[in-house]
Amino acid sequence: MVERKQVTGYVSEATHRSLQAKADAEGLSVSEYVGEAIEEKIERDGLESAADRYGIEERMLRLVDDAADRAADRIVERVAAAADAETENSEDTEDGGMYDWGDE
To answer: Whole-angstrom Cα distance, residue 19 to residue 11?
Structure first.
């Protein structure tokens, strides 16, 4: 059996009536109902916190992927530009890039 500790708190009259009605509907005492509600809230907060951390990790991974894609695109553009420049330089020679020493 799980050891239970007492927690005392105060609520408004309206909240107390609501808690009493909900506890009665579930066949529990107000104390049991509030205890279960608190445990569920703590568990839900823990799950939300884990989900938040997971969401942050997912966003970071997307950012890294996007940055890698942009870097790869820039590399491709630079390589293509260099290849174009080399092609233009080779077209300046008479026989497609091959020439003898005195034919400059």
So the answer is: 10
Please, what sign has the CA dihedral across residues 98, 101, 103, 104? Answer: positive
pLDDT, one tens digit per residue, over 2-17 is: 788 888 889 999 999 9
Q: For 44-95, what is each residue's pLDDT tens digit?
A: 888 888 888 888 888 899 999 999 999 999 999 999 998 888 887 766 555 5
Sorted by where each begins, the domain ranges of the chain are 14-89
Return the residue matching tokens 């107390």. Answer: 16
* DSSP assignments along 29-67, one per residue: -HHHHHHHHHHHHHHHHHHHHHHHHHHHHHHHHHHHHHH
Q: What is the DSSP letter of 89?
A: H
